[in-house]
Amino acid sequence: MRIANLAGRLVLVTDTGAVDVEEASRGQFGPDPTAIYRQWPDFTAWAASTELPSGRPYDDAELGAPVPEPGQVFAIGLNYRAHATESGFDFPVEPPVFTKFRTSITGPVGDLALPGETVDWEAELVVVIGREARHVAAADAWDHVAGLTVGQDYSERTRQLVAPAPQFSLGKSFPGFAPIGPVVVTLDELPDPADLEIGCSINGEQVQKARTSDLIFPIPVLIERLSAVLPLQPGDLIFTGTPSGVGGGRTPKRFLVPGEEVLTWIEGIGALRQRCVPGTPHTTASTS
Fold first, then answer.
1. Does 286 score more than 80 pLDDT?
2. Where are the beta strands (DSSP E) in 69-141?
3. Same domain, 199 and 100
4. pTM, to two decimals
5. Count of CA atoms in the C-beta half-sphere (13 A) of 84
6. Are residues 77 and 9 in the same domain?
7. Is residue 268 left, alpha or beta, with left meaning phi > 0 and alpha meaning psi from -120 to 50?
8. Which parts of the sequence belong to the Fumarylacetoacetase-like C-terminal domain (predicted)?
């Protein structure tokens, strides 16, 4: 399945277009794109046994975040060796974890308001949890995944790295800093969900390209490590980390400026597209 949020309503994307789930199921499932993950076994059983009607055409600009209200958002740092190296860190022995606050989540296409002069890009594969995971072994972890989507972990590096204590979660949570989409793709739709090409370009210039099989901590290990500490709930998101090629790792450093377009893609899932526009400037200076 390819699950999307079309103008705030849960849809399935087929070869013919978008099928409204509430209408197709005759009310068995509601229109809320996030709620469906709490009904995941029933929903997948219905979808597998139902002949869907023809879908309607739509424009990508109508798509919202396919999971607009996750309960928890986990983000993993330094999960590709080349990115750890370009960032000046040793390879981690445990997944470095932070969050992107929920209000930063947005849809796959739109404007990205730049709050400062050091906004960076980070293409990421995002996991959507479909079944509660608590003390789950890596060998069983895929059973708890509803699907995968594309994400961007936009980062305001000045806010993120302000001394003396870095503010990763704040620096990565300005409005629009967590676009996801365009769809959530279930694992059966992908030849190998553990090995997908991922990339990012700016104004047509490729700046990142890798394969998700290069992850230091693969998806099953991330679920094992996270679920050993706290339960992962249906609809939770895991941003799995970014490959090398970010602006802050370049010499000289390169950051986003108004007028640039960022295209982020993952094989078999789709692409995000943001146009950079001026935003409200922020300050990291203390007033106390």
1. no
2. 73-76, 97-98, 105-106, 109-114, 119-120, 123-129
3. yes
4. 0.96
5. 17
6. no
7. left
8. 73-275
Q: What are the φ and ψ backbone dihedral angles of 140, each rounded to 5 degrees?
A: -105, 5
> 91-109 pLDDT, tens per residue?
889 999 999 999 999 999 9
- Residues 193-235: pLDDT tens digits? 999 999 999 999 999 999 999 999 999 999 999 999 999 999 9
Residue 34 binned pLDDT confidence (cut-offs 50, 70, 90): very high
Residue type, 283: T
If asked whether residues 21 and 73 sit together in one domain, one would say no
- Residue 241 contacts residue 124 (beta carbons within 8 Å): yes
Is 87 a residue whose pLDDT tops 90?
Answer: no
Return the structure tokens found at 122.
């980070």
Tell me: cis bond preceding 252? Omega within 30 of 0 counts: yes
| 50: number of Cβ within 10 Å | 13
Q: Can you give the CATH number for the domain in which 91 is found?
A: 3.90.850.10
Name the token pair of 28: 């068995």
Report the DSSP pairing between strands 237-239 and 17-20.
unpaired
Number of domains in the chain: 2
